[in-house]
Amino acid sequence: DRPTLAVVGATGAVGSVMLQILSTRQDVYGEIRLVASPRSAGRKLSVRGEEVEVVALAPEVFDGVDVAMFDVPDAVSAEWAPVAAERGAVVVDNSGAFRMDDDVPLVVPEVNPEQVRHRPRGIIANPNCTTLSMIVAIGVLHEMYGLSELVVASYQAASGAGQEGVDTLYDQLERVAGKRGLGERPGDIRGVVGGLGPFPAPLALNVVPWAGSLKEDGWSSEELKVRNESRKILGLPDLRVSATCVRVPVVTTHSLAVHAVFDRDVDQREAQAVLAGAPGVVLVDHPEAYEFPTPADVVGTDPTWVGRVRRSLDDPRALDLFLCGDNLRKGAALNTAQIAELVAAELTR
Ligand code: 2RA
């Protein structure tokens, strides 16, 4: 029998992408149950070409469920993932609630698929979208050269902040549209964009050096996630990581500029060849023809796109590169679906 799947948070920004992804995989699951907050219960959503009614989150919805995907706020996962696990489901959770717990594996199927089996609590965590947008490519380079340090600047899309982030960006863009001269004086953009939504400054015609919440000594939660999650996924607890996370007026697809330092000397052509041949990675690196990944070209696709691969001019052990990944697909729904498929394969064996 094919396993029964529950999708918790089916009506959110990531949930909608999840239903699209599930619809491209007809033969993995038997029943698919869609679960959301009581507010969304009763809505009908399409998955695998069928209309399925959304049910309200309650302990009984997990009865008979083999795999439960969660894409809900941290507090909701913290409360409900253990309930689903107690009722026998293997939980794949995309919140930050369990990622750094020692007894919860943090899995990227291209990098550490074997970790899926070490799940004493019946919970497997999916990494944050910013980490996920680079880690497949970085994992490949680590295997080749041995990673010792990452210096990262992110260029994060509005949809990382959910549907509210997307709506806020579109509203602001409408308000600035056609206003020539805007952006020439301090504060003039702030004066016209209206509400800031989830962002601490205007996002239209701007960049905002902030994502997440404030942690110690001026670091943002997002920057600490890039550091802690990269260390855990790669199995490098002492990896040196410095990240600066920045929001840009892009709807979907996170980008990152990465300076990666390795244990041994790197070679530009060799690194390009290894990236080009890696599953889940696409190399687009022809600067002479202005060919490199950009969010506008990458959005809606599954792989991690890499370009601008250069050996550092001042350190023969370092590479500089630019990466793009759709933060709702590989950055969230796709990686969750890939983990769930590893579990489903194990359960149907
Ligand atoms: C963001 N990484 O882009 C977050 C979402 N999980 O805001």
TrEMBL record:
It comes from Actinomadura alba. One of its GO terms (molecular function) is aspartate-semialdehyde dehydrogenase activity. Substrate binds at Q156, R247. Keywords: Amino-acid biosynthesis, Diaminopimelate biosynthesis, Lysine biosynthesis, Methionine biosynthesis, NADP, Oxidoreductase, Threonine biosynthesis. Its EC number is 1.2.1.11. The active site is at C129, H254. This is Aspartate-semialdehyde dehydrogenase. Pathway: Amino-acid biosynthesis; L-lysine biosynthesis via DAP pathway; (S)-tetrahydrodipicolinate from L-aspartate: step 2/4; Amino-acid biosynthesis; L-threonine biosynthesis; L-threonine from L-aspartate: step 2/5; Amino-acid biosynthesis; L-methionine biosynthesis via de novo pathway; L-homoserine from L-aspartate: step 2/3. PANTHER family: ASPARTATE-SEMIALDEHYDE DEHYDROGENASE (PTHR46278:SF2), DEHYDROGENASE, PUTATIVE-RELATED (PTHR46278). Phosphate binds at R99. NADP(+) binds at T11, G12, A13, V14, R39, S40, S159, G160, N327. InterPro entries: Asp_semialdehyde_DH, Asp_semialdehyde_DH_beta, NAD(P)-bd_dom_sf, Semialdehyde_DH_NAD-bd, Semialdhyde_DH_dimer_dom. It catalyses: L-aspartate 4-semialdehyde + phosphate + NADP(+) = 4-phospho-L-aspartate + NADPH + H(+). Residues 4-119 form the Semialdehyde dehydrogenase NAD-binding domain. Homodimer. SMART domains: Semialdhyde_dh. Belongs to the aspartate-semialdehyde dehydrogenase family. Catalyzes the NADPH-dependent formation of L-aspartate-semialdehyde (L-ASA) by the reductive dephosphorylation of L-aspartyl-4-phosphate.
